[in-house]
């Protein structure tokens, strides 16, 4: 596996603990000298970068003279909360932190691939799958928290005699949601990374700039679609009636 420079750096200082952790869970690394993959290293950069960004925003909060970072964070919060209220309804504000975190992480994970020597972690199947599973468990958890045991009734259909048919259909349908979220995000970002890389290697700089802008657009769009679908799924889970 080709290691990115930052991945090589992480493996150089953390290969020991990483190997110990992988061995303890019964999943030893294929290459003990490089147990940390590129996608994990890139995720680390995104997470650390976002933590620093929001710490900076928090430290500079001001009512009288809000800065650019604060304006950006407020616009994001208003956009996510507005969309959530539109789809879920009243009392949706408690879900805003989850959706905002999801959007920002996916967006920056998509965009980091535009930086030389970096690549988008969302171009690896493991990251979109992880995000999809977190979303899947989150909306089911919120459904159970809101509805209690009655949440599972909608898996059985409107009448009891349809339950043997409806239960497997509903299970497959909900599993397909996680698969759909994974494939959509992974395929689009992987394709965007490949197209950008190919054109940078084949043609002068002017044309690749067009594809860079296209990649930026796709990055925003895929982050938005992922969060939009997550919001729709959550709305169905916490609805008063199914």
Fold and architecture overview:
With 242 residues, this protein is an all-alpha fold. It has one domain. 72% of the residues lie in helices and 0% in strands. The chain contains seven helices and no strands. The protein has helices spanning 5-24, 38-59, 68-88, 96-111, 126-147, 163-202, 206-238. Helix 3 crosses helix 4. The chain is globular and about 60 Å long. The model has no long low-confidence stretch (mean pLDDT 88).
N-to-C SSE series? Answer: HHHHHHH
- Helix vs. strand class: mainly alpha
Quaternary status of these chains? single chain
- Beta-sheet strand percentage? under 5%
Structural domain count: 1
Counting DSSP H or I runs of 4 or more residues, the number of helices is 7
The rough form would be described as globular
What's the Cα radius of gyration? 21 Å
| Percent range of helical residues | over 70%
Given as residue ranges, the uncertain stretches (5+ residues, pLDDT < 50) are none
Mean pLDDT level: 88
**Largest sheet data:** none
């Amino acid at each position: 596996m080709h290691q990115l420079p930052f991945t090589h750096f992480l493996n150089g200082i953390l290969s020991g603990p990483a190997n110990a952790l992988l061995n303890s869970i019964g999943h030893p690394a294929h290459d003990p000298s490089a147990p940390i993959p590129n996608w994990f290293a890139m995720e680390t950069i995104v997470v650390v970068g976002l933590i620093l960004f929001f710490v900076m925003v928090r430290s500079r909060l001001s009512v009288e003279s809000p800065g650019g970072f604060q304006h950006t964070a407020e616009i994001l919060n208003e956009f996510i909360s507005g969309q959530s209220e539109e789809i879920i309804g009243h009392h949706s504000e408690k879900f805003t932190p989850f959706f905002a975190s999801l959007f920002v992480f996916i967006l920056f994970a998509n965009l980091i691939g535009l930086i030389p020597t970096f690549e988008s972690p969302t171009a690896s199947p493991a990251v979109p799958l992880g995000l999809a599973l977190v979303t899947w468990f989150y909306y089911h958890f919120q459904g159970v928290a809101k509805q209690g045991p009655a949440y599972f009734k909608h898996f059985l259909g409107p009448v009891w005699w349809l339950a043997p048919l409806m239960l497997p259909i509903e299970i497959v349908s909900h599993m397909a949601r996680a698969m759909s979220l994974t494939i959509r995000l992974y395929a689009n970002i992987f394709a965007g990374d490949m197209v950008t890389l190919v054109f940078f290697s084949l043609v002068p700089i002017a044309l690749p700039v067009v594809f860079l802008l296209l990649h930026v657009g796709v990055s925003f769009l895929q982050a938005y679609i992922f969060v939009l679908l997550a919001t729709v799924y959550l709305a169905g889970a916490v609805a008063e009636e199914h």
